[in-house]
Design goal:
Length: 95
């Protein structure tokens, strides 16, 4: 299962958030073998940017580990509003 998590960040908080996410993703990669990606929508609106974390091919239980890592990393201090998580699975090829 692939996880896509998006959220808003104040322009002023980007320089604090980015290294914290990078450190969290590095720890998750080491502990769970999942290489996270960090993306953002170009530009900002009303002083807010939209950021996205992508975690492809996550193992069972990874969501719980991710939630714990987010709490431990302090990311929520720099996120404006909620983190929204979407789950996607691969579509098998047509027969």
């Amino acid at each position: 299962m692939d996880l896509y998590i998006y959220y808003k960040v104040k322009d002023a908080d980007v320089t604090s958030l980015q290294p914290a996410v990078a450190a969290m993703q590095a720890a998750l990669a080491q502990q769970h073998g999942v290489q996270g990606q960090l993306k953002r929508r170009p530009g900002s609106k009303d002083g807010l940017q939209t950021w996205m974390e992508v975690y492809p091919a996550t193992p069972a239980g990874f969501g719980t580990a991710l939630d714990s890592a987010v709490t431990q990393s302090g990311l929520l201090a720099w996120i404006a509003g909620l983190r929204h998580t979407e789950q996607f699975t691969d579509v098998p090829p047509c027969a």
